[in-house]
Structure formats: structure tokens, C-alpha cells
Amino acid sequence: MLHIVFHPKYLDYSFGPGHPFWPERAEVFLKRLKETTLPYKLHKPQRAKDKDILLAHAGEYLNRVKYLAQSGGALSIDTPVDAGVLEAAYFSVGGTILATELALGGKRVMNLLGGLHHAGISDSSGFCIFNDHAIAIRKLQKEKKIKTAFVFDVDVHAGQGTQEIFYDDPTVFTLSIHQDPHTLYPGTGFPKQEGEGKGKGFNRNIILNPGAGEIQFLAAVEEGLRLHKKFNPDLTVLVLGADTFKEDPLANIKLELETYEKLGEKLKGIEHCCTLCAGGYSRSVPEIWIQFLRSWGTEDKKY
């Protein structure tokens, strides 16, 4: 059975008219999910606490975000902050904490607002406020529920915030498969960025050229799976960006709807894995999630 994490507060993660991020997609997806034969259970997360946020972010950053929410400011030109967005961000973190805990219990779980990978230690942009999965991993490590984790990021944009947070950490392997950052935001996430210090070799960026399609994408996923198997983590977090779809207005990777079902098939054997949904700006996002779940959401032998 699928376990879907959703809170009505997620719908407040909205940056205003004309902004490419549309939170209503969660409602469209849930309506569409009811029309399928996939069995599922909904879970409502709790709001994260400030002490959770501080596991991955600097105190000065948290104070800045709170100030911007009160004053109506912005982290960047594309990421305005108000009280509703900030509250939704707290619930997104709570949702990913819940999703990771369910995954450790053997559940197949998807959080409908997570994978906000552009949020770094002290700054952010790219529609992200808090790095929910970095916080959840740090929390589980602090509570000694896991030792190691693997971030399997297939969003079309490089997860530079996640990369920064774990860059010197050998206990968290960060993999990002994304469009060449010479051609796309955030302009970083290059193969030469492999981590530093004890974390050297535990950060991997796999680059897709603009116009790449299913063959190139799935080959990169296979390479990621080899790295994952070698690392053998206690927990895996999948950042499922739907912005690799051919109709996405912000990028230039050309995946078909069927590719996401093939992606789910390749990843379904990973144990203790949760899926996070953030990136993706076409109106096909809900259907992309459904296609992925058609394969990933079914039981299968572990690889």
C-alpha cells in the first residue's frame, strides 16, 4: 500500500499569481489518485519545530526568514516569503520527517511537498525555504535511528543546498542528476564537485545536456543505482523532480510521461526509501506522479 503525506497547509506554499510553482497540483493529484486502482493511505504531518530547522540551517538564517515573513520580503527575486509560505514550509519539513520515519518502518511513502533542495545552510532561492530532507536526515541521525543516508535527486536543477549541507559529511551520499548547470539555474553542480575533507567522494553530480531524453536520463539513473548499491545506506530519500518532463517551462530535458513509470520500476527495489515532490511546473505534474507510482508504488523484490 502507498502512504501519502499531505497537509492542507501545503496549499499555502504559494508565491502569488503568475509564479510557476502551483500548490493546487497536490489537490489535483489526490483527486486523480482516487480514480486509479492504487491502494493508499493519507497521513497528516505535524508542524516542525525550530530546533528541527536548526539541525541543517544557521540560526541567523532562520531569524532572517521569520523577519521576511513578517515584513513581506523575499529571499531572492523568485522566492518571496510571507506568513502563509513560512507556515507551509514548517509543515513540509514535518511531512518529510514523517515520511522518512514511515520509510524506515518499511512503508512506501510519498510526501507531496518536499525535496526543497535549493535551501542551504545560510541562504536560499529557487522557491525553497527550508531543506526538509537535510533536516529529516540530521534528525534521524541525532536520534540514532540511522547512521547513513543517500539523497537520490533527479530534479532537473542541481540540489546545491543539499550539496552544501553535506559536502564534508561521509555519512550522507548526495547524488544529483540534472541539466548542465552552464545552461540552467542554479549554475552549479558540476562533476568536479565531489565533496571535501572526509566527505570527498560522497557528492556526485551527473550532467544531462539540454535536449537529453529517456535514454540518457535512465542511463544516469543506472549509474546512480550502482553508487547507491555500493554505499548501502540505512535510508534513501528520492527527490522526484517532475521538471524533467518535455513540457516543463523552466528546463530543457525531454522525458515522456512513460519515462516516469520506467523510473519507478528501476527504483522500486530500494529499501527504506521515501519520495519527495517539489520540482515540476507544467500542468502535467499530477499525472507524472501517477505514472511514477504505477510502478514504484507496487511491491517487488529488493535488489
How would you state the average pLDDT, rounded? 97
Question: Low-confidence stretches at least 5 residues in length (pLDDT < 50)?
Answer: none
The counted number of beta strands is 10
Q: Please state the oligomeric state of the protein chains shown.
A: single chain
Structural class: alpha/beta
Order of helices and strands: EHEHHEEHEHEHEEHEHEH
Tell me briefly what this model is.
This protein is of the alpha/beta class. It is built from 9 helices and 10 strands. The chain has an 8-stranded parallel beta sheet with strand order 2-1-5-10-9-6-7-8, sandwiched between helices.
Describe this structure in words.
By secondary structure, the chain is of the alpha/beta class. The protein has a single domain, classed as Arginase, Chain A (3-Layer(aba) Sandwich), CATH 3.40.800. The chain has 9 helices and 10 strands. The protein has helices spanning 25-34, 50-53, 59-71, 83-104, 132-142, 160-165, 214-231, 257-267, 285-296; strands spanning 2-5, 40-43, 74-76, 79-80, 108-111, 149-153, 172-179, 203-208, 235-239, 273-276. The strands form 2 sheets. An 8-stranded parallel β-sheet has the order 2-1-5-10-9-6-7-8, sandwiched between helices. The protein has a two-stranded antiparallel sheet with strand order 3-4. The longest helix is centred in the first third of the chain and has 22 residues, at 83-104. It is globular. The two termini are 19 Å apart. The relative contact order is 0.15. The mean pLDDT is 97.
Task: State the main characteristics.
9 helices, eight-stranded parallel beta sheet, Arginase, Chain A, alpha/beta, two-stranded antiparallel ribbon, 10 strands, globular, 35% helix, 303 residues
